[in-house]
Specification:
Blueprint lengths: L4 E3 H8 L3 H9 L7 E2 L5 E4 L1 H15 L3 H7 L5 H38 L5 H12 L1 H24 L6 H8 L7 E5 L5 H4 L10 E6 L2 H10 L6 E5 L12 E7 L8 H11 E12 L5 H10 L10 H4 L5 H5 L5 E7 L2 E4 L2 H10 L4 H5 L3 H15 L2 E4 L2 E7 L4
Helix pairs in contact: 1-2, 3-5, 5-6, 5-7, 7-15
């Protein structure tokens, strides 16, 4: 079928948006015309309706224009499926969220019709529900970015033993009855090792994000001996010496007060119990850092140098203040990336300021990535990650 083309005005009218909206998205680099005639007329195609739908839907769901830019770069079938899947999940979550708010409002309204005063706990609950709406967007923003980064490591790792398999082997998990994971995310550690999970253990997965816990529960619903609880590791709602094994995978450097968290971890850990926490070193993924810096020195892929807060270089010193027995184990691995799109998506998924600078000249950024890959056919990337195994004394 021959592809149809539309002027800006025709395209805007058919999409039921203003000309100004189309011109604005063009200026922002979100929705460029399919081609521009010699006279400067801008034309859009049928394919551009799909991208416009993505932009409008993601904007309505609460994503910023910079985030939408990175989420709509690719237009292949696989990317479209991922986008629509994300939209469906978030819309379903928002429906549930608004249904909960509506139910709470009706309950408060009914109470007021029957009483001449208000129980403030009902109003506090309603306020809490209203404020929770932003958490839905934040959860899926984080989940999508985490999935992109996990896929890069899974696809291009040179190690015969995957990261999560290697980590699981460090836990000596068969010898522990009560197990706690802090910052479990979507449960990826347990998903990849589900055949090794001892059915005799009591496992508690915790996270500060309720949405992430729901994802973990959904991913691991067939495993009956796992419980889920929203919890901050700086204030563990657990009894003293009640856990035999505590796991913290790449999360201590996000904690506001690491020392307070370690005090709590030591408190709830049983005598002779293990605390295993993973992190990375200062050279981790350094080739990617160097690459984006060559494009613009102002780009930082992370808001903070997390390894300076808790990394392979300083982790043992920090942990030794709380544990007498601390060992560091490194996971020997690297990446050999051969697809420039995968590399681009990884860069855009990071937590730094890269979108601010890349979106201004995205075509030049793409050319730089493609040229880099063309020179060698692949890009070697250093991985510097490992874990600390800490044992609590019997004293």
């Amino acid at each position: 079928m021959e592809k149809k083309y539309y002027t800006t005005g025709q395209f805007a009218k058919m999409a039921n948006v203003s000309n100004r909206t189309i011109r604005y998205y063009d200026k922002q680099g979100l929705l460029k015309p399919h081609h521009i005639s010699e006279k400067g007329y801008r034309y859009y195609s049928d394919d551009d309706f799909v991208k416009l739908q993505q932009i409008l839907s993601l904007k309505n769901l609460g994503f910023s224009l910079e985030e939408i830019f990175s989420m709509t770069l690719r237009s292949d079938v696989s990317s479209l499926k991922e986008s629509f899947s994300l939209q469906k999940k978030m819309i379903y979550k928002k429906i549930q969220h608004y249904e909960a708010i509506l139910s709470s409002i009706e309950e408060v309204d009914e109470y007021l019709n029957e009483h001449d005063h208000l129980e403030w706990n009902k109003l506090v609950h309603l306020i809490s529900l209203s404020q929770a709406g932003d958490d839905i967007v934040e959860q899926y923003r984080n989940a999508s970015n985490v999935e992109i980064r996990i896929r890069l490591h899974e696809k291009y790792s040179t190690s015969k033993v995957s990261w999560f398999t290697w980590l699981f082997d460090q836990y000596d998990i068969m010898h522990h009855k009560n197990i706690l994971e802090l910052g479990c995310g979507n449960g990826q550690l347990w998903i990849e090792n589900k055949d090794k999970i001892p059915l005799t253990s009591n496992i508690l997965l915790t996270d500060v994000s309720k949405g992430m816990l729901e994802d973990a529960r959904s991913n691991l619903f067939t495993i009956g001996n796992i419980d889920y609880k929203k919890m901050n590791c700086e204030h563990l709602l657990l009894e003293d010496e009640s856990v035999d094994l505590i796991i913290a995978n790449h999360m201590l450097f996000y904690v506001e007060d690491v020392n307070q968290a370690l005090k709590e971890i030591k408190r709830v850990l049983s005598k002779g119990g293990l605390f295993v926490c993973s992190t990375y070193g200062s050279h981790h993924m350094k080739e990617i850092t160097d690459l984006v810096k060559s494009f613009n020195q102002k780009i930082n892929l992370s808001k903070n140098k997390l390894y300076e807060k808790f990394g392979l270089e300083n982790g043992k010193e920090i942990l030794s203040q709380y544990f007498d027995d601390v060992e560091m184990h490194r996971h020997e691995d690297s990446l050999e990336v051969t697809d420039s799109d995968d590399l681009t998506n990884y860069i855009l998924s990071c937590h730094g300021n890269q979108l601010e600078y890349i979106s201004k000249d995205y075509e030049s950024f793409l050319r730089m990535i493609h040229n880099k890959m063309k020179q060698t056919g692949k890009m070697h990337i250093t991985k510097e990650a490992g874990c600390f195994i800490c044992r609590k004394s019997f004293d």
